[in-house]
Amino acid sequence: MITTVIAICGTLLGSGLTAFVTAQTERRRNEALEQQQIREEAARDRTQRRELRVEHRKWRRDRRQAAYQGLLDAAHEAQGAIWQLGRLTVEPFDQHRYDIRRGAAIDAVRATRRAADAVQLEGPADVAQAADEYAKAIDLNIEPSIESLMLLSKEPLSEEQQERYRSSAAERNALVESCQQRFVPLARQALDELMNDVE
Known about the structure:
Layout: H1 2-87, H2 95-122, H3 125-141, H4 143-154, H5 159-198
Helix pairs in contact: 1-2, 1-3, 1-5, 2-3, 3-5, 4-5
């Protein structure tokens, strides 16, 4: 009978020990699975945040590019309208043509100012400042033509007045060109920097 009791106790002790070891192993396996799930979830979150940052930077780049291109297009249109207005200084004065071309030039200059305002919103600061200077140069560029045409409306321009107009127009055109040459590389750099941050 003692052997039976020892055998039963051994069996119970072996079963209990096996149950204890199995429970410990199961607990460790569950903890390992939980840690693995936490790591996988953290990795998914990091990936999702990175993808959102990339998407946001691409969206920002597209917005900036549209604003920058809008300014360049508006400035080109304004320069064309100002040139058309300036062409009237070499012809006999015609009030109707003057009013039409002056209106078109003023509207184009205003569109340039609005485009520069859009760049102000999109930034960055150095590009916004260059855009503002560019739009102001366009705005200043209309003045020589209007001043000369106002004089022309009263009487034909003297040689001195014509030379003053040509000199002033050339100076203003050079300022516009200089502002454009400053704006374009800054805009390009700002766009490139956004994409470099993504990669």
